[in-house]
Automatic annotation (TrEMBL):
Residues 95-167 form the Bacterial spore germination immunoglobulin-like domain. It comes from Paenibacillus glycanilyticus. SUPFAM superfamilies: Copper amine oxidase, domain N (SSF55383). It comes from the Bacteria. Coiled coil: none annotated. Residues 26-75 form the Copper amine oxidase-like N-terminal domain. This is Copper amine oxidase-like N-terminal domain-containing protein.
């Protein structure tokens, strides 16, 4: 590949892009470009969405009615970190069930639901076992209709409190539902 400067413009800003001088490998296959180069802007790599979706086995489509790109994959990976794993969310309209596994100090997991501005709900749950064991959990979360955002995303934060200073550690953020 050769590097060449390119310029893109939006309504207010100009961007200087260069073609990436390195290969992009996805699951053992190298992206070849074929008229759609990989670009670099300020050290960040930008790739053609549909080509990457195809290489990952994901569907990439334009939703004309909503004016957005929709990417979906049947092989969604449940979010994980050092304290929470295999987290799945079901439900909608303010009624959610969240299941997964936790590995937290003294078996006490904390959670909060926020709307992008404020916490709508905060709580904790005692798990059957504390770290280092993984223990299953199930949360029933209800947000009253008048607290649901007109636009925005409800996000669940799972975390534990540090045994040293009480601060939030091992925070795992999980979208519950997006409202438009």
């Amino acid at each position: 590949m050769t590097a060449f400067p390119s310029v893109a413009a939006t309504n207010k800003t100009w961007y200087s892009l260069t073609e990436a001088a390195y290969p992009i490998e996805v699951n053992g296959s190298v992206y070849t470009g074929r008229g759609l180069p990989v670009l670099v802007y300020k050290g960040n790599t930008y790739v053609p969405l549909r080509a990457m979706g195809d290489m990952l086995g994901a569907s990439v489509a334009w939703n004309d009615r909503q004016g957005k790109v929709v990417i979906s994959s049947g092989a969604a990976i449940a979010p994980c970190n050092n304290a929470f794993c295999d987290v799945l969310v079901t439900g909608s309209g303010g009624h959610y069930t969240v299941t997964g596994k936790g590995r937290v100090f003294e078996g006490v997991m904390q959670y909060a639901v926020e709307d992008g501005h404020d916490y709508l709900l905060e709580g904790h749950q005692q798990l059957d076992e504390g770290a280092p064991a993984w223990s299953p959990f199930s949360l029933k979360i209800t947000i009253p209709p008048e607290q649901l955002p007109a636009n925005g995303t409800l996000t669940l934060e799972l975390f534990e409190n540090s045994a040293k200073d009480g601060s939030q550690i091992n925070v795992l953020s999980i979208p519950l539902e997006t409202f438009q």
